[in-house]
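Input (structure):
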Protein backbone atom coordinates (compact mmCIF):
# COMPACT_ATOMS: atom_id res chain seq x y z
CA UNK A 1 0.00 0.00 0.00
CA UNK A 2 2.81 2.39 0.81
CA UNK A 3 4.20 1.83 -2.69
CA UNK A 4 0.90 2.74 -4.30
CA UNK A 5 0.62 5.89 -2.20
CA UNK A 6 4.18 6.86 -3.05
CA UNK A 7 3.58 6.46 -6.79
CA UNK A 8 0.40 8.55 -6.60
CA UNK A 9 2.03 11.39 -4.68
CA UNK A 10 5.28 11.47 -6.67
CA UNK A 11 3.38 11.74 -9.96
CA UNK A 12 1.47 14.77 -8.69
CA UNK A 13 4.32 16.91 -7.38
CA UNK A 14 7.09 18.89 -9.08
CA UNK A 15 9.74 17.80 -6.56
CA UNK A 16 9.37 14.01 -6.14
CA UNK A 17 12.68 13.82 -4.25
CA UNK A 18 11.17 15.78 -1.34
CA UNK A 19 8.29 13.35 -0.81
CA UNK A 20 8.49 11.34 2.39
CA UNK A 21 5.92 8.86 3.64
CA UNK A 22 6.12 7.39 7.12
CA UNK A 23 4.06 4.41 8.19
CA UNK A 24 2.78 4.22 11.76
CA UNK A 25 1.02 1.12 12.96
CA UNK A 26 -1.67 1.87 15.50
CA UNK A 27 -3.79 -0.64 17.41
CA UNK A 28 -6.26 -1.46 14.62
CA UNK A 29 -5.15 0.77 11.77
CA UNK A 30 -2.18 1.88 9.73
CA UNK A 31 -1.49 5.61 9.48
CA UNK A 32 0.53 7.05 6.62
CA UNK A 33 1.97 10.53 7.14
CA UNK A 34 2.79 12.27 3.87
CA UNK A 35 5.21 15.20 3.71
CA UNK A 36 5.88 17.17 0.54
CA UNK A 37 7.52 20.53 -0.14
CA UNK A 38 5.44 23.61 0.61
CA UNK A 39 5.20 24.45 -3.08
CA UNK A 40 3.63 21.07 -3.84
CA UNK A 41 1.19 20.93 -0.91
CA UNK A 42 -1.55 22.63 -2.94
CA UNK A 43 -1.25 20.07 -5.71
CA UNK A 44 -1.56 17.17 -3.30
CA UNK A 45 -4.54 18.61 -1.44
CA UNK A 46 -6.29 20.09 -4.48
CA UNK A 47 -9.18 22.51 -4.64
CA UNK A 48 -11.44 22.11 -1.61
CA UNK A 49 -9.47 18.98 -0.68
CA UNK A 50 -10.77 16.94 -3.61
CA UNK A 51 -7.37 15.49 -4.55
CA UNK A 52 -6.69 14.49 -0.94
CA UNK A 53 -10.09 12.80 -0.73
CA UNK A 54 -9.41 10.93 -3.97
CA UNK A 55 -6.02 9.71 -2.71
CA UNK A 56 -7.60 8.56 0.55
CA UNK A 57 -10.36 6.75 -1.34
CA UNK A 58 -7.88 4.84 -3.49
CA UNK A 59 -5.78 3.78 -0.50
CA UNK A 60 -8.86 2.77 1.51
CA UNK A 61 -10.08 0.66 -1.42
CA UNK A 62 -6.74 -1.18 -1.53
CA UNK A 63 -6.81 -1.60 2.25
CA UNK A 64 -10.32 -3.05 2.17
CA UNK A 65 -9.15 -5.82 -0.13
CA UNK A 66 -6.43 -6.64 2.41
CA UNK A 67 -8.89 -6.40 5.34
CA UNK A 68 -7.07 -3.48 6.95
CA UNK A 69 -7.94 0.04 8.06
CA UNK A 70 -5.83 2.91 6.80
CA UNK A 71 -5.59 6.65 7.48
CA UNK A 72 -3.67 9.09 5.30
CA UNK A 73 -2.53 12.40 6.81
CA UNK A 74 -0.88 15.26 4.94
CA UNK A 75 1.64 17.15 7.09
CA UNK A 76 3.13 20.59 6.56
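Output (sequence):
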Amino acid sequence: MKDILEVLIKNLVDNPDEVSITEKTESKAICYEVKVSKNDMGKVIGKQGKMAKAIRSIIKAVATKEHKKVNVEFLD
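Notes: The mean pLDDT is 94. The helical segments are 2-12, 41-45, 50-65.
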